[in-house]
Automatic annotation (TrEMBL):
InterPro entries: Split_barrel_FMN-bd, TR_PAI2-type. One of its GO terms (molecular function) is peptidase activity. Transmembrane segments: none annotated. Gene3D superfamilies: Electron Transport, Fmn-binding Protein, Chain A (2.30.110.10). This is Protease. It comes from the Bacteria. GO terms for biological process: proteolysis. PANTHER family: PROTEASE SYNTHASE AND SPORULATION PROTEIN PAI 2 (PTHR35802). Keywords: Hydrolase, Protease. It comes from Flavobacterium cheongpyeongense.
């Protein structure tokens, strides 16, 4: 991912928080000479030896997995808030642009056994059911329902490299920076407002 130095995010704790809060990613690899991509929840976890990894699962019918045996290298793309930035919001002539936050994770994927896959599912469901009035728990599902789990397989990705971009108008002076935030907030667009919130965190 091309990222000018000004927009590189090398704060490991910030990247870790971003991955946990924006865990619906795009898993990309090459299968049979074609690029393949699947949109799925992919969670940042710590393995048995204390190393951070990514975890997720795929349908056994997904042909993307055929490529894992031939080449285990994958890319996972995570995106956060993003918004168009109009140059009419500046006090000088310039070109429009786009503000966004994104993280690319490069690593090596391996398929895990069925028991590990079920444990991954339990963690995933518990995370997203935490605020439900009547939370679903994998442990409480019937054997008939759990037979559906046979149609998936879990995977782990050993992380080799992380590239993180946080492009939030860092190249603008305080006056224009504050004006961009103000204009984004006026849009009533949730993505734009989320960008404004992130910008406010970066510069008081």
């Amino acid at each position: 991912m091309y990222t000018p130095d000004l927009y590189k995010n090398e704060n490991k704790e910030e990247i870790r928080t971003f991955l946990k809060e924006n865990s619906f990613g795009i898993l990309i690899n090459q299968t049979n000479g074609r690029l393949c991509a699947t949109h799925i929840p992919i969670e940042l976890e710590v393995n048995a030896v204390g190393k951070e990894i990514l975890q997720g699962h795929l349908s056994k019918l997904n042909p993307q997995a055929q490529g894992f045996a031939e080449n285990d290298q994958v890319l996972v793309v995570f995106t956060g808030p993003h918004s168009y930035i109009s140059s009419s919001w500046y006090d000088h002539e310039n070109v429009p642009t786009w503000n966004y936050i994104a993280v690319h994770v490069y690593g090596r994927i391996k398929i895990v056994d069925e028991a590990t896959s079920i444990e991954q599912l339990k963690k995933l469901v518990d995370k997203y059911e935490a605020n439900s009035e009547n939370p679903v728990r994998i442990e409480n599902l019937s054997a008939k329902t759990m037979r559906e789990a046979r149609g998936i397989f879990g995977f782990e990705i050993e992380i080799d490299e992380i590239e993180a971009t946080k492009k939030l108008s860092q190249n603008r002076d305080d006056h224009n920076y504050k004006n961009i935030i103000s204009e984004l907030e006026k849009t009533e667009n949730p993505q734009a407002i989320a960008v404004a919130k992130e910008m406010s965190k970066c510069r008081k």
